[in-house]
Amino acid sequence: MRWLLLCLFFISGACGLIYEIVWNRLLIYVLGGTTFAVTTVLCCFMGGLALGSFLAGRLARRTQRAALWYGAIEIAVGLYCLLVPLLFHLAPAWYLALTRIAGDSFAWQTACRVAVSIALLIAPTCGMGATLPLLTQAMAQRGVSAGVAVARLYGLNTVGAFVGCASAGFVLLPALGLSHTTWIAAAGNIGVGAAAVAFGRRSAPAATPAPAAPAGGQHSSPVPGWLLLLYGCSGLAAMAYQVAWTRALILSLGSSTYAFTTVVVCYILGLALGSLAVSRFIDRIRRPLAVAGAIEVLVAISALVVAPLFGELPPLLASVLQATGQRFAPMLLAQAGVVFALLIVPTGGLGALLPLLVAHTNRQRAPLPAEDAAAAPGSAAREIGALYAANTIGTIAGSAIAGFVLIPWPAVGMQRTILVASALSGLVATGL
Questions:
Q1: DSSP of 406-417, one letter per residue?
Q2: pLDDT confidence tier of residue 71, bands split at 50, 70 and 90
Q3: Any residues with CB less than 8 A from the CB of 134 and at least 6 apart, and which?
Q4: Cα–Cα distance between 387 and 358 in angstroms, integer?
Q5: Counting beta carbons within 10 angstroms of the beta carbon of residue 279, is it exposed (0 to 12), middle (13 to 18) or buried (19 or more)?
Q6: pLDDT per position as a tens digit, 15-56
Q7: Residue 252 neighbours by CB distance under 10 Å
Q8: What does DSSP assign to residue 283?
Q9: pLDDT of 304-353, one tens digit each?
Q10: What does the DSSP 8-state code read for residue 104?
Q11: Angle in degrees, CA 153, 154, 157, rounded to 5
């Protein structure tokens, strides 16, 4: 059952990234291709993930059938996304009707963009955000510690996101187009949901009463606000890194869809490998919070180290182009290898943070044997929902601040944006 859940979440991650790429393409036709419009879409997408994660953390506290809820949500996401082509066909009319009311005001037109994006994306993105807390709770109900469960699930889901991003950008969209690619992803969601419902009904755990909380209420205490703040700031710095790295690498690799997809898949793969690597020994770490702080320091230093190397890429890639005989596929693989080598240390560190913080909060809340802590309903999901939501809100802020303020500001630019983000990572590391 555990391996089934892991495999299903891998497929779910692939479908999610396929949707994100397709939706970004479709919304450009509605909102225009400006950086502002694309960033608005990204913020709405990630805001839905945060809301869904937070709500699912609350839901999982009240159910012993988290796997069934997960399957139902996957089916609902797939069915909704089958309607996406029709919704995007109607979206221009909605936007034009709103802009007639807004007039020529830039602020009101921006609000209209946001309103259209929210109307289209809030339902499926909330569903996607709900899946990690629910599946982590389902794993915990089957005797897996919260730290190991979230590390494996988050890692495999992110590997799936890597596969989905690469297949959508390099294979599905060029070969099949937007509509057929959407249908493939929707079929994947519906199939995953049906499998989760079927196997969840057959192997749903028996209801187990939660261990009695001590007098101080330690077992029911939520994630402390200072930890949510630190992890939110870590997400802000992480997104500032991604925006600055993407801008810098696009200058060296070119602005094609293939180059952009190469940067994104390397970033995602680094996150996945970091989470999967820490899952192998997370239960043996005595002080997960201190280790998370040390990793945040490593992220900050490695981000500073790789920044000057971006300027060395053009001559390196020119020599690679000559060595490959200007053939497209070998050149693309060589570019991906160079980008991955630059980003593996900082992105791998970022991917390891969530499992470590979950392990810390789980031990603080429930200093019990692993099987007893796992039996407490809602214990794992509530913590993961809160942490994931806080980090996602931080990434929204980081995307907006880096894309709209820091990088366009002549006094800051790309290099100093990385310096500011590294300083923030250092402050987060100190707090941890």
A1: ITTSTTTHHHHH
A2: very high
A3: 56, 59, 60, 66, 67, 69, 70, 73, 381
A4: 8
A5: buried
A6: 998 998 888 777 776 666 555 655 666 777 788 888 888 888
A7: 18
A8: G
A9: 998 888 878 778 877 877 777 767 777 778 888 888 898 999 999 999 99
A10: T
A11: 80
- CB-based contact 428:296 (threshold 8 Å): yes
Q: State pTM to two decimals.
A: 0.79
Could you report the per-residue pLDDT of 186-242, keeping only the tens digit for each? 999 999 999 999 877 776 554 444 444 444 444 444 688 899 999 999 999 999 998
Letter for the amino acid at 308? P
Query: How far is Cα 253 from Cα 232, in angstroms, rounded to an integer?
Result: 31
Distance (Å, whole) CA 321 – CA 338 = 13
Handedness of CA 166, 44, 58, 281 (dihedral sign): positive
Q: How far is residue 285's CA from residue 360's CA, in Å, rounded to a whole number?
A: 10
414 and 402 Cβ atoms separated by less than 8 Å: no
Q: How would DSSP label each residue in 244-280? A: HHHHHHHHHH-SSHHHHHHHHHHHHHHHHHHHHHHHT
Give the angle subtended at the CA of 128 by the CAs of 275 and 8, to the nearest 5°: 65
